[in-house]
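PROTEIN DESIGN WORKSHEET
SECTION A - STRUCTURE
LENGTH: 333
TOKENS:
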């Protein structure tokens, strides 16, 4: 309750006395971005200060913009575009006049599924959105891990920051799925570091017209294809994709989880157990893998294994364990 009250106070832009100083400082690194596109249409987003006078935002906010501004309650500052990486949806903005703290960053390699996080960005107007959640998945991609989180962020928060509870920046809020609150994604700080290096070297990225997550992006990652198929309950297609994924990345827990999830839905719980055992063997803290392994054990009729998986789940995430208990009483799908 104390942290929740703290976040409410922060969101109201007051000066809290009960919050962690590091988190207060992290919130101050996030600004609102306004842009005017070539067709005159306005666009709104968020940005994070990552170096003195430099912010990073989502390219899909500033794409084709004639004018970009950093907005705050006292006015606005003109932002000049810097290096951009459209493929990874990260663009730098230069605002030499901007004064304030710089976000301290942490790479994604040491992050854990289930780790508590805080998403900070702006909604419509000057409403600052600060939401708690957890890391629900880590997807390897291009030298980092794309983060999926249960911390819901609103339209306009893209380009904002995903922080640890101690205020370390671990991702840039980028896009959301339409199927549920669990589908909120942030791109890793490893990509931000590369962009800063590119900017310092005055280098340019290959021209890209779409970011990796957009519908018309070529070669969309398997984890996104899997998310869309799961949300559409296209289980046969998901099974086929997951089989390819396990061959391509046999040491990735997410590939085996996806296969197990499809097998459960297709009424093949024994095959699901094998896949999901592979998932937890590769990441023993994977909350969703333990959840679906318990479900598969329940369907197969292995009560001892079901109890064991349920207890492992409870150790990692009591909320998910309670959800599993409710499904068990009502009849697991």
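SECTION B - SEQUENCE
RESIDUE ASSIGNMENT:
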């Amino acid at each position: 309750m104390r942290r929740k009250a703290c976040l409410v106070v922060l969101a109201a832009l007051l000066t809290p006395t009960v919050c962690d100083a590091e988190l207060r400082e992290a919130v101050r690194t996030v600004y609102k971005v306004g842009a005017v596109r070539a067709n005159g249409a306005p666009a709104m987003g968020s940005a994070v200060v990552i170096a003195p006078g430099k912010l990073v935002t989502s390219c899909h906010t500033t794409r084709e913009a004639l004018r970009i501004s950093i907005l705050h309650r006292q006015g606005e500052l003109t932002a000049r575009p810097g290096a951009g990486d459209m493929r990874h949806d990260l663009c730098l903005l230069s605002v030499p006049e901007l004064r304030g703290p710089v976000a301290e960053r942490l790479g994604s390699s040491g992050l854990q599924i289930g780790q508590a996080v805080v998403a900070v960005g702006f909604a419509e107007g000057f409403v600052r959105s600060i939401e708690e959640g957890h890391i629900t998945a880590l997807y390897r991609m291009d030298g980092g891990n794309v983060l999926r989180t249960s911390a819901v962020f609103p339209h306009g928060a893209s380009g904002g920051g995903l922080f640890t509870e101690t205020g370390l920046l671990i991702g840039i809020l980028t896009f959301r799925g339409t199927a549920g609150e669990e589908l909120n994604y942030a791109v890793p700080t490893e990509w931000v570091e590369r962009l800063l290096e590119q900017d310092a070297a005055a280098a340019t990225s290959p021209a890209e017209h779409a970011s990796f997550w957009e519908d018309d992006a070529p070669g969309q990652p398997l984890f996104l294809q899997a998310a869309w198929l799961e949300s559409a309950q296209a289980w046969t297609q998901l099974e086929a994709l997951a089989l390819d994924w396990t061959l391509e990345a046999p040491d990735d827990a997410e590939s085996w989880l996806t296969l197990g999830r499809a097998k459960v839905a297709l009424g093949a719980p024994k095959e699901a157990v094998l896949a999901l055992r592979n998932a937890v063997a590769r990441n023993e803290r994977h909350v969703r893998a333990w959840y679906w392994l318990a479900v598969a054990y329940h369907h197969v009729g292995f009560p001892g294994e079901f109890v064991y998986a349920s207890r492992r789940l409870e150790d990692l995430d009591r909320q998910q364990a309670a959800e599993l208990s409710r499904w068990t009483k009502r009849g697991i799908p």
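SECTION C - NOTES
Residues 222-330 form a domain with the Serine Threonine Protein Phosphatase 5, Tetratricopeptide repeat fold (CATH 1.25.40.10).
Residues 251 and 259 are 13 Å apart (CA to CA).
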